[in-house]
Amino acid sequence: MRLLFCGDVVGRSGRDAITAALPGLRKDLGLDFVVVNGENAAHGFGITEKICTELFDAGADVITGGNHTWDKAEIIPVLNEDRRLLRPLNYPAGTPGRGDHDYQDSRGRRIKVVNLMCRLFMELLDDPFAALEKALPLGTPKSAGYDAVLIDIHGEATSEKTALGIVADGHATLVVGTHTHVPTADARVLSGGTAYQTDAGMCGDYESVIGMEARASIRNFQRRFPKERLSPAMGEGTLCGTFVETDPATGLATRVEPVRVGGRLSQSLPKVD
């Protein structure tokens, strides 16, 4: 299988980057399944049902979330109704929505997607390590009946995300981080066969401060009185993501590469047959 995970979509620039590039990527890379983190898609804060439809129409199969999942109250009933929309698994019991789910691609292959949130410098949620271990297959994805297992770890600290990746090694196809909006250079297949990248980067305008208009962000760093409301930068966006190929015998990864299309970052596209 060929899989793509797209990092945090930030505002209109990020949505435009997805709608412009993802349909072509699905075709050119022969993608079987696509996951997109959408928690910043609505003007940088949260997501709406209309934007979910926009991302699904562009080629996303599943949308994951994070700490901004709840910023638009209208999304709460959608989290309960649409199983393609996830929020972090380690919110307390009774929280609307779900943090993991099983899906199928167009050929009937089973894919499990898990959405977790870290705790260092974040909200004090339930233990993400315990939640991860409960959600993971006991063996390889294939031994548990899955063709792939994808895990979005939404977190600030690179150490915590790396530790969770090591816990999942040998049990998941891909563990990829979100939240920091900067693509890391550590995409690799771990020793147990799990593809890992600490952060996929954002889909948005990189002529900014992590997707937000730069001057207001700078003023907020300089001042100590109440801060300005930030707005997303509106220049051309880059689609940033992580591409994975799987071993059909195990469901583990045989290859992982960064994807960067459009905007101001250096471009990166995997070569496929």
Tell me about this structure.
The protein is α/β, with parallel strands linked by helices and 273 residues long. The chain has one domain: Purple Acid Phosphatase, chain A, domain 2 (4-Layer Sandwich), CATH 3.60.21. Helices cover 23% and strands 22% of the residues. The chain has a six-stranded mixed sheet, covered by helices on one side. Strands 3-2-1-10-11 form a five-stranded mixed sheet. α1 (11-28) runs parallel beside α2.
Features:
273 residues; alpha/beta; Purple Acid Phosphatase, chain A, domain 2; 6-stranded mixed beta sheet; 6 helices; 22% strand; globular
- Give the topology string: H per helix, E per strand: EHEHEHEEHEHEEEHEE
Strands in their spatial order, largest beta sheet: 4-5-6-7-9-8
Outline the biggest β-sheet.
6 strands, mixed
Cα radius of gyration in angstroms = 17 Å
Total of helices: 6
- How many strand units? 11
User: Averaged pLDDT, please?
Assistant: 97
Please indicate the percent range of residues in DSSP E strands (runs of 2 or more). Answer: 15-25%
* Second CATH tier, the architecture: 4-Layer Sandwich
Tell me the name of the CATH class. Alpha Beta
> What characteristic shape results from the CA principal axes?
globular
Low-confidence stretches: none
Termini separation (Å)?
13 Å
The third-level CATH topology is Purple Acid Phosphatase, chain A, domain 2
The CATH superfamily name is Metallo-dependent phosphatases
Give the proportion of residues in helices.
10-25%
Structural domain count: 1
Structural class: alpha/beta
